[in-house]
Design a protein that fits this description.
Keywords: DNA-binding, Transcription, Transcription regulation. InterPro entries: HTH_LacI, LacI/GalR-like_sensor, Lambda_DNA-bd_dom_sf, Peripla_BP_I. This is LacI family DNA-binding transcriptional regulator. The protein is an alpha/beta fold and about 300 residues long. The protein folds into three domains: about 30 residues; about 130 residues, 3-Layer(aba) Sandwich (Rossmann fold), CATH 3.40.50; about 130 residues, 3-Layer(aba) Sandwich (Rossmann fold). It has twelve helices and twelve strands. The strands form three sheets. A six-stranded parallel beta sheet has the order 2-1-3-4-5-11, with helices on both faces. Strands 7-6-8-9 form a four-stranded parallel beta sheet, sandwiched between helices. The N and C termini lie far apart (about 65 Å).
Length: about 300
């Protein structure tokens, strides 16, 4: 019983006794059985986090902020990658539930109905991140990609372009932004050409998308990309084709990744608070697990334009 107290609630154990227990744990290599502890206490201390990709800092910074904040609150993260697949997300969450997580963090708001049933039947607190909806599964800390797309469209219109090229990834959040950009273009009679590239977005995809636009032999005043990674690839291909940005055309990205500021030329983009998103989601989830219900379960973050050399 004393050992149990020392491991699970060390503040109630005398320092000398606690040191003896720590020494024994270290010398024997003992690992507490968290599964058994979860059954006894109804808490596992685990948070399941599902993201679509981790090959760029777009999601990594949010996850790291989330992990750090949850660690301070006494929770550990189980991270899984869905590869932008709704079916994979269902399988991942099903597997996570076998570990009896105290909470779940999901990326986006578009999920398979099977996943929603699994979560609702489990009564596990959930925070959705990176997107926005008035009807989240439970709680949400995200962004309105519709508003971002509209804002990007109006920012491009200010330059009075004759023709705009768009290099765009296929994921749902990027597509929301694209739909709103095109609405603004139609309202302002701006001609445009879209080339779609697979998700996750890679620098090579930006180069391939740029090649596809150039193959149309259409002169472009502006090229908009659904991410800074694609914008970097677009600029690299332009350089290879002896074209100069922004002299021959302007480029705008999304996400304000590190590469955007240090690329040559530096990339104009949309800045979002990726770290703040992770921190707010972590604290909202931890509070909910600990019985504190948020006054506002839906948090929509702001965004700003970072104007740099490319635009």
């Amino acid at each position: 019983m004393t050992v149990s107290r020392a491991l699970n609630n060390p503040s109630v154990v005398k320092e000398a006794t606690l040191n003896k227990v720590k020494s024994a744990v270290e010398s024997t290599g003992y690992i507490p059985n968290k599964a058994a502890g979860a059954l006894a206490s109804s808490k596992s201390g685990l948070i399941g986090v599902v993201v679509p990709q981790i090959n760029n800092s777009m999601f990594v910074e949010t996850v790291e902020a989330l992990r750090g904040c949850l660690a301070q609150r006494g929770y550990h993260v189980l991270l899984s990658v869905s590869d932008y697949s709704a079916a994979s997300e269902v399988d991942i969450v099903s597997s996570l539930m076998s570990h009896r997580p105290d909470g779940i963090v999901l990326t986006g708001v578009h999920h398979d109905n099977r996943l929603k049933k699994i979560i609702l039947n489990s009564s596990v607190p959930v925070v959705e991140i990176w997107d926005s909806t008035p009807t989240p599964i439970d709680m949400l800390v995200g962004l309105s990609h519709d508003k971002i797309g509209e804002a990007i469209g109006h920012e491009i219109v200010k330059k009075k372009p004759k023709h705009v090229g768009l290099i765009w990834a296929e994921d749902s959040r990027a597509q929301k932004r694209l739909q709103e950009i095109i609405k603004v273009f139609k309202q302002n009679e701006i001609n445009h050409t879209v080339t779609q590239v697979p998700s996750p977005a890679k620098m090579q995809s930006g180069r391939t998308g740029m090649q596809a636009l150039l193959a149309t032999e259409q002169p472009f005043d502006v090229i908009a990309c659904s991410s800074d990674t694609l914008a970097q690839g677009c600029i690299a291909e332009a350089h290879k084709q002896n074209m100069k940005v922004p002299d021959d055309f302007s480029v705008i990205g999304f996400g304000d990744l590190d590469v955007a500021e240090y690329n040559v030329p530096s990339i104009t983009t949309v800045n979002i608070d990726r770290i703040g998103m992770g921190q707010q989601a972590a604290n909202m989830l931890a509070d909910r697990i600990e019985g504190k219900y948020p006054e506002n379960p839906i948090v929509n973050l702001e965004f700003t334009f970072k104007r740099r050399e490319s635009f």
